[in-house]
Amino acid sequence: MQLLRQKNFGVISENKILFLKKMAELIPHPFSSLINRMFHELETKSSIFDYHSKKYFTGSTDKEYSVKFHGKKSSSPLGPASGPQTQMAQNILLSWLGGSRIMELKTVQVLDELEIPRPCIDMQTIGYNVEWSQELKVEQSLHEYVKGSMLIQILQASKKLEIATNFENVLYDMSVGYDLEGIKSEKVSKFIEKMKDASAIVEHYRKQIPEKFAEYRDLDFQTRLSDTLTLSTFHGCPPEEIEKIIDYLFHKHSLNCIIKLNPTLLGKNKVRHLLNDMMGYQDINVPNEAFENDTSWEQAQGFVERLGLTADSLGLGFGVKFNNTLIVENHRDFFPKTEKVMYLSGTPLHVLGINLVQQFRERFCDRFPISFSAGIDKNNFADSVALGLTPITVCSDLLKVGGYSRSSSYFKELNTRMDSLGVSDIESYIIKAYGNAELALRNIGIDNGNESVNSFRESLHNPESQLQFSQLLKNLGGKITENLLSEIKLLNTKTYVEQATNHERYSFEKNSTPPRKVGTMLELFDCLTCDKCIPVCPNDANFALNIPAGKTEILEFEQRSERWHIKERKTLKLEKKYQIGNFADFCNECGNCDIFCPEDGGPFILKPRFFGNLDSFKHFSSHDGFFIEKGNDAEKVYARFDGKEYCLLIKGEYVDYSGPDFKIRFCKDDPINTISGEAKNTVSFENYEIMKMMKTAVTDTSSVTYSSFL
Description:
Blueprint: E1 2-4, E2 12-13, E3 16-17, H1 31-45, E4 47-48, E5 51-52, E6 67-69, E7 72-74, E8 78-80, H2 89-97, E9 102-104, E10 121-122, E11 128-129, H3 138-158, E12 171-176, H4 180-183, H5 186-196, H6 199-206, E13 228-231, H7 239-253, E14 256-261, H8 268-278, H9 288-293, H10 297-314, E15 318-322, E16 326-329, E17 341-344, H11 347-364, E18 370-372, H12 381-386, E19 392-394, H13 408-421, H14 426-432, H15 437-443, H16 451-461, H17 466-475, H18 478-501, E20 542-545, E21 550-560, E22 563-574, E23 579-583, H19 592-596, H20 603-606, E24 609-610, H21 614-619, E25 625-630, E26 635-641, E27 644-651, E28 654-659, E29 662-667, H22 671-674, E30 676-679, E31 683-684, H23 686-699
Parallel strand pairs: 1-22, 8-19, 9-12, 12-13, 13-14, 14-15, 15-18, 23-24
Antiparallel strand pairs: 2-3, 4-5, 6-7, 10-11, 11-17, 16-17, 20-23, 21-22, 21-31, 25-26, 26-27, 27-28, 28-29, 29-30
Helix pairs in contact: 2-3, 3-5, 7-10, 11-18, 15-18, 16-17
């Protein structure tokens, strides 16, 4: 009899995943292991954490992408939004490899032991989620942020990547929530102060740098990780509470602050007109309570004005962010029925977000900087840059096929547009992007100018070299350039909002087709091996498992009259050149890999799951999986199949193998003639052979899985 990929690893009901009710817990990885894997994988596979180097974006010698954020220089306006791409150290590094240089770290709050529903991310069409806070303890989050920044500095110092000299400045922006009481708590206050001075944590991890890389122990690691903060508040947070929080952060912690505001500021009529009527998302309903409970436009204008004055008096930066996700009724069957609402992100949110940018600028002009996060992708990133938004953060698009590598295409499109305009820096690009410079000059009262103005005006119609245009812009003088940029940002915003609001690419019709499914069910081995599940995981929990194709004989023994006999011989056949595995410690069961997998069942549930330590393996007793323990003279494999535990100990010539109703021993080279022990029933060697495969796959010297470096 032949076994062909028959082993399932999860619980299936009516061809749908029965998601495990127990809260998934992320487990931070040892810093030394992250460093070892980073360099080993780069050297052996030209990738880092499963992100191939050919898709990195590390700057350009003939382009200057730098922008200012709260007066500090960042080498790029792009960054990951406060979400799944910045919750763990490897996520931060992966974002950096894609060209992000302003890292909006995942929001922390005083309540850091939450039961977040699973699955929590739905990217089938646009974007929905029920995940809104960190999944680590506050102190763990702090350590992940420090580890992430140190990984970046170590990689920069290694010179193993060709990074443009003007692309090395990285900024970290912390995010806290969700109310004043929680933010004033000792736990969150300590987090903020340690982000401002992480010296002790840096020294802690400096000592963990492996001896092989001891040269990096003397690096001047960044210890003032951040003095900027983006405030995230609950939907429905009272406006007076928002104002008190920012005022507290100004005076207590001396932080430069951004307030993340909600799309509901547009008002009920405009939100529904844009979302339901113009874009055609008739199935989405924003509940009335969302508008009734959220800050109104009038209230927002009031506290922005007052907080702006306070910031000025304290010499601190202050701005706004458009925008938060949009609260909508849960009308889909993806999330648990207990979730009455969910949060919309992605494509349609972009239209709402840029309309808010226009509304805000029509009121405040360019007085306050605007951070932006709403449906950013390769098609609209360059447009958002042209509006002078900083940072421009992204989440939903990086959860699609390709993952972090998608952001490199943002710069490809931006470069194309910059080249077509004959510019090489962001300021020059903003000025020329939409052809609004002539009108802007007139609007600020410069019709006929001096020689510098006339030369600049000529260059608008007769593009010069990139260097020449940049110099002509400087020749205008600081005040004229500042006023010109401010006016152009307003004009560009109006131009772009008109284009995007009516563009079909944001419509329901263009965003209603889910990823294709082929109708087959995933199994433990031999899926389609399309590799989509690997990059769509923001935590890099899914990976290629080095188990080559081939046939393995499966013996089944029975004990008769105190002697062991072979009852049956079968064959386990693997047809793919490698398999897919899942590192349980990094998997939060968000469900995103299941969305993009062409087969049903979910890779994170049905593929081999590996735990980073024995405590983790035992803690998640409802999860099938493996833990491989490596010793000097023995190797031990713990496993769970269908909730039943097995153990395999290989020491010298002999193997001790036990399961729920048997305990046997045999010589690994001759089990047929050497088997001994006790069993209540027959003993199949199928799980034994699978456990051997798993041990070999993660202990092989060429392996680059996280388990390999523990």
